[in-house]
UniProtKB/TrEMBL annotation:
InterPro entries found in the cross-reference section: AAA+_ATPase, ABC_transporter-like_ATP-bd, P-loop_NTPase
UniProt keywords, alphabetically: ATP-binding, Nucleotide-binding, Transport
Family: Belongs to the ABC transporter superfamily.
Protein's name in the database: ABC transporter ATP-binding protein
Organism field: Szabonella alba
Amino acid sequence: MEGVAWRAGGWPVVEDIALHIREGETFGLIGPNGSGKSTLLRLIAGVLTPAAGMIRLDGQAQARLSRRCAARMVAFVAQQAETSERVTVRDAVELGRTPWISMLAPFGGRDDRVVTRALQQVGTAALADRYWHGLSGGERQRVHLARALAQEPRILLLDEPTNHLDFIQQLSILRLVRSLGVTAMVALHDLNQALKCDRIGVMQRGRLVACGPPRDILTPDLMARVFDVRGHFVTDPTDGHRFIRFTLPEV
Ligand SMILES: Nc1ncnc2c1ncn2[C@@H]1O[C@H](COP(=O)(O)OP(=O)(O)OP(=O)(O)O)[C@@H](O)[C@H]1O
């Protein structure tokens, strides 16, 4: 994307974003509350239209793609995604197949297998016959991810996917995304999770202020400037794993 901007009531929410996401990479989008992460994801998902600039999906101008083509390419799991209350979990995940079915190619055996696999991948197979309205927040989050996987997208956009998830799901979600081999852009608040991404982009007040491999980008200086926290790397003596420890700035 080049020069991408979006405004609300005349105020810039995202400004002049130039970014190239590489095929197959897991790209983490980080930044403080209100820095424009969700807005940028919604622009790429086509939920919002840029006020300026150009977004290309797989080399093609997003604005020129039909809804169906775009939906085959991009799946988006929003922060507070809703689904009609009266559907079962399996029905909700089957909706992910919509861009692939038509009068000439009705829902068939392959679609059924894709849905079953998606339910299994996020550990929701046992919920398949439950009604959406009876699910917990974390269960809903996982079902939305299953719906997105059933879409078999080239590009997966996830807005804070670890919200509502219990510990094991939080730890496993990025591994799952990476194992799929799709291009993924994931808005994250947990900077230790961001360390697991191939590259990260840092948003601040609507602008992309840094982009690159997480260990190069997440310096103590950047964490202080952008997040207003003291962050430094520590090493776990049991396995040598490095992670970031945060403290409030000294007053
Ligand atoms: N439709 C809108 N109308 C007015 N202001 C908006 C609109 N959408 C977003 N904003 C504002 O734009 C800014 C960026 O919002 P956005 O949701 O993209 O941030 P974010 O980085 O995803 O934040 P968070 O980490 O809190 O989810 C915020 O100040 C928000 O209030």
